[in-house]
Structures are given as C-alpha cells and as structure tokens.
Predict the structure of YhcH/YjgK/YiaL family protein.
Amino acid sequence: MLVSKFDSSENSLLFSPKVVAMLEQLKALNLANLELGKYSFEGIDEDDAFFIVMEYQTAKQSSVGPEFHRKYTDIQLLVSGEEQFGWVRVSDSELADLDSKYQYDAERDICFIKEQELPLEINQMKLGHFYLFTPQTIHMPNLAIGEPSAVRKVVVKLKTELLNR
C-alpha cells in the first residue's frame, strides 16, 4: 500500500506520466458535486483506467471481508466523511494460495477472503490523501470510525501494469 497527498508535487516522482495525468484530471474536477457513477479519463482507454464516484454508509464490520484484485490497482480517495480500512501486503505465493482457496470473480476483478485469514493493520483514511492498493495488498475498506457514517469516495481502477509506464 502506498499513501500520498492528493496534491503533492512528489506524485510526479512516484508514478508514470499517465498516472500523474489521471491525478491531475481528478484534481480539476469538483469531486464533492460530481454525480455518482463510473467515469473515464480523457485520453486513456477505459479498459486501462476509469474511476467511480460512490457514496455509502461505513460499517462497524465488513459484510464481505477483505478483498484483492488481479487486474486492477485501486487508488482510493476520500472526498467527505470518515473511514478506516484494514490492509496487509502478501507475497505472490500467498496470493496464489488465497486465489486457489477462494472464488475470484473475473468479471468484477475481485476476490473476497475471510477476515480471520490474515492479520490486518487498521488505518484511518485522511481527507486530501489517496491510498493505492496493488493486487498484493489485501484490503478491507468501508469501516466505521466509531458509529457508521456517510462517506463519499472516488475509487480509481488502474491496470496494474500501467503504474510504472
């Protein structure tokens, strides 16, 4: 997992020009007022990257458990509200073991595992930061800090191989 400030000039050192351009496009939008739904990035094939604007209630416990993806890396940006998440980095062999044990949904690019499967570190999402979860980062978003509350979030889905190109 990687955490960075959304408006950091260091992002150009961390990511490929394509990813930096995507972040710049997001910065230019009024994310607080953008309609909920799926959007594409200008100049980038939608199969390579897209983003989803969502709102939901956080929960004291995950109803589905930790998740991982194969095809896409998640870049999550909290727009409003408060949320915490669990995460743990795993090796490729651990990922393969989990992959064979649980049912991966290729259409949705997601696999849910049992929460007890791995010890998760819990962190709080901060406004103005984004959180990058590669396929080797098992993560469990949408967790309440105290009582459940409303959250608005943007999730970028980026083909993992484009992170460094």
User: Anything to note?
Assistant: The chain is about 15% helix and 40% strand. The chain has one domain: 2-160.
